[in-house]
Amino acid sequence: MSGHAQEPSSVPEDDLAPTETTGYKVGQQKTLEELARLDAEDDSLARWKASLGINPAASASTSGSGPNVEILSLSLTAPSRPQPIVFDLTDPAKVKSLKSSPVVIKEGVDYSVELKFKVNHGLVSGLKYLQVVRRMGANLDKLEEMIGSYGPSPEPVVKKLVAEESPSGMIARSGSYTVRSRVIDDDKHVHCDFEWVFKLAKEW
Predict the structure, then answer these.
(1) Measured between alpha carbons, how far is 150 from 124 in angstroms, rounded to an integer?
(2) pTM above 0.90, yes or no
(3) Is 4 a member of any domain?
(4) For a disulfide at 73, which of 91, 101, 116, 139, Cβ 3.0-4.6 Å?
């Protein structure tokens, strides 16, 4: 799933604004072939480009299809849960249903968001995950974490983010929580933007 949310969101757009990288300016994007040739004699730069999968031979033949960054799934993982809760983000109908089908999260446990994505045919710089949790119209929590920079690869990337602790207590268990999740890069391209809902319970 890519692009902006299609329906009005219960989480204001301003709440999803990422922190600006100091000194970073959005510039003209270069092709992988241009990047591969850039400062070819610089060993440290060559190692960095190699870590992103950029090299002259590969970049010339890279011809992935679809969106540059394809977010395949978001999962909730926890040591206290045998299997993760997986959101399939490749099916628009399933993504839309997340707003009306709350998932259950056990109160007072550590859990992590795990993203699975593919970079198809270009370099993506400064990929970042943003998440805002709201309840009864008020923001309760905001998570912002850097995912990294990646070059194209046929294999999906799986990135587990920092663990957070779910709220606990009788009041916390009443009602539901709305979460808006977004994946954005340094060039302000939104690669994924959707909402999901959870409820807290004494057990998973």
Answers:
(1) 5
(2) no
(3) no
(4) 116
